[in-house]
Amino acid sequence: MAAVAVAADNLRADNMDTDTNCSAIGSGPGTVNESDVIYQGSGSVSRKAGTTEKGLASDTGAARDMTATGRETYIVKAWLTNYSSTATSGNYFRVRVGSASGAYYYYEYGSPTVDYPAKGGWVIDAIDPSIASHRDGTTGSPTLTAMAWFGAVAKASTSKTENLAVDSIDIGTGLYLTAGDGASDDGVFQDFTDDDEGDTTNGRFGYVTTIDGVQFVLGKLYIGATVASAVLTSAVTEFTDTGGTTVWSENKAAAGFSGLILDLGNASTVINITRRSLGSRGTVAGEDTRAIFEVTGSSGEATLTGCPLDGFASITLNVATTLTDCVITNSGLVDAGDGADLAGTTIASSTAATDASSLEWDVNLDPNGELDNMSFAKGTNAHHAIELGLTSPLTVTLTGHVYSGFNASNAQNDSTIYVARTSGTVTINVAGGGDTPSYKTAGAVVVIVNSVTVRVTAVEGDGTPIQNAYVFLKASTGGPLPYRASVSITQTAGTATVTHTTHGYSTGQEVLIEDSTIDAYNSLKTITVTTANAYTYPIDSGTTSPATGTIVSTAVILSGLTNASGIVEDTGFNFVSNQDVIGDVKKGTSSPVYVPAPLTGTIVSGSGLSIVAPMGSDE
After folding, report:
1. CA distance 348 to 510
2. 388 and 359 in contact (C-beta within 8 Å)?
3. H-helix segments, 196-305
């Protein structure tokens, strides 16, 4: 067993406790060793900036290759005491990063309402100089593989005493936490704060800061591995934390710089996070500076319970990960990897691109269990709730799902399910009273099966079952099934062919044909589907063709005699959406006879429909 250990994947290029490596920018008195304005260590370096541009820079004593893995990003710590004056036209506060005094990129923090903290104080930010879209300007031709020059300048409408300060120059990726196993206390998020903000001598990198108990992060927090130049080495770790808030801040770094990384490469690693709010405040436009959430390795286990996750660029999980009753909002793709468990989790307002998906299931495993009782709310973007990838099984079960805002029509950019297979038949079974999804397919045939039970029970007044009563139940207005839909019929060689646009019927189904003036076409028919717009049934070959009259077709739900328990039922009725039904139950040809009983109701998801029909004696 070992106590929790937290360290930084970081290069401290200059601690700025003295101005040894520093030089002044602009005329006037030089740099000052500052002991009154300090973020880290025993001092910072300051300069007086006024109505003409002045500042300071450190050459750090060596060139830094800021294209090297894990060393791409500078953690800024700079302060301008009279920052409000930079809001005046022509004034500014700029951070510079370069390879020489005449070759640098600069970044504006020029207004108290843009970038500079509203309360004033230290600007703490992450800058990756290779990302052109973050730059506000360039002087000369900086060399990214030899960056040695870090500083700040200001031009303000007022001139104060030393009012511009720069503290430690740190280059790295973030903080990592390991151990906490056995009898030692488990790791918690506060350990990251204690190592960074809490260590004024060797810490204060700027990766973690706090305001009123909220933890703000630049870069990555790694749990379960030691890290050197972004290379992870798995290590036994026990981490358990409940409650609190962690927010990854906006930054000027590369996509994927910030995030939460859970490394499960060690079989003894156990991570449990409960009801902690995890959020990202980066932007999508241009360089995507939102944080990522990623699980690597699958020997250990990680469980998140009741956690809100908001604003992540991506969430990448695996079979060793369980998210229970979490709420994921305003985030990019949730990748379930080789079978993450997301039971009870909600995904809402995904930032997935048009025709993309909020959740990807691309493993040869039925998600029944792992994706049970999930909810999906579309929000603004026209995307799918779930993508069934190329390696997902041909038969899947989706249990207890709730879909909100997705297109009810198939083959749309925002249909509920996207099936990535280009061939074969994919059957999607809907269970547990879940909503029936629409779908879009890359070419595979898709069959949606939402089986519910529709039952009619005929009883006497005292509840005694009535056997051999005839039950007839058909679709009514209100629902997806045809009710008195207009059709046309022709007859050839004893086969009646019905033209019925997008009928939605299946072979073997019974339909009621009515209102033909040629009676042979009318009555209950068992059909064979030939196309999406046509079906057939047998008829006398001498029947006049075409059929005349205003002919209509209605879906039949139940038709048959009750058994000894008084029941006629269909246990495999394929539910699409709520369906109103009407009909009756009769027994009048053999004793005992009864007064017919009318039937009405609505078939719903999950429970289907069960009608108990009391019948009075007609003897």
Report:
1. 40
2. no
3. none
Find, among 65, 49, 67, 47, the residue nearest to 57 by Cα.
Answer: 47
Residue 186 near residue 103, CB atoms below 8 Å: no
Name the residue among 325, 316, 385 with its Cα closest to residue 350.
Answer: 385
d(CA 601, CA 540): 36
CA nearest to 170, candidates 74, 249, 106: 74
Pairing of strands 74-80, 123-127: antiparallel
**Strand ranges for 344-436 from DSSP E:** 346-348, 357-361, 375-377, 384-388, 395-399, 402-404, 417-419, 425-431
- Token pair belonging to 598: 């009318």
Tokens of 502: 């997008």
Decide: 60 and 106 in contact? Cβ < 8 Å: no
Percent over 90 (pLDDT), the chain: 88
Is residue 570 very low, low, confident or very high in pLDDT (cuts 50, 70, 90)?
A: very high
* Residue 441 identity: T
> Helix %, strand %, coil % for the chain, to 5?
5, 50, 50
Instruction: Decide: pTM greater than 0.90.
Output: no
Counting other chains too, the contacts that 196-201 makes at CB distance below 8 Å and 24 or more residues apart are 196/8, 200/40, 200/41, 201/41
Q: What is the pLDDT of residue 119?
A: 74
CA 199, distance to chain mean position in Å, is: 36
Would strands 214-217 and 208-211 be described as parallel, antiparallel, or unpaired? antiparallel
Alpha-carbon span 81 to 86, nearest angstrom: 11
Report pLDDT digits (tens) over 123-175.
999 999 999 999 999 999 999 999 999 999 998 877 777 889 999 999 999 99
369 φψ region: left (φ > 0), alpha (ψ -120 to 50), beta (else): left
Mean pLDDT of all residues in 219-248: 98
Q: Which residues of 373-393 are buried (b: 16+ CB within 10 A; e: fewer)?
A: bbbbbbbebbbbbbbbbeebe
DSSP letters, 46-75, are EE---SS-EEEEE-TTS-B-TTSTT---EE
Reply yes or no: is the peptide bond before residue 112 cis, omega within 30 of 0: no
Question: Which pLDDT band, with edges at 50, 70 and 90, does 539 fall under?
Answer: very high
Cα–Cα distance for residue pair 619/616, rounded to 1 Å? 9
Scanning the structure block, which residue is given the tokens 């495999």? 572
Rounded-to-integer distance, Cα 220 and Cα 231, Å? 12
Q: Is 195 helix (H, G, I), strand (E, B) or coil?
A: helix
Instruction: Count H helices and E strands in the chain, helices first.
Output: 1, 54
Token duo for residue 313: 């660029």
Half-sphere exposure for 600 (CA within 13 Å, toward CB): 4
What is the residue whose two structure tokens read 């031709």?
A: 141
pLDDT for the residue numbered 617: 95
The label of the residue with tokens 């002044």 reads: 24
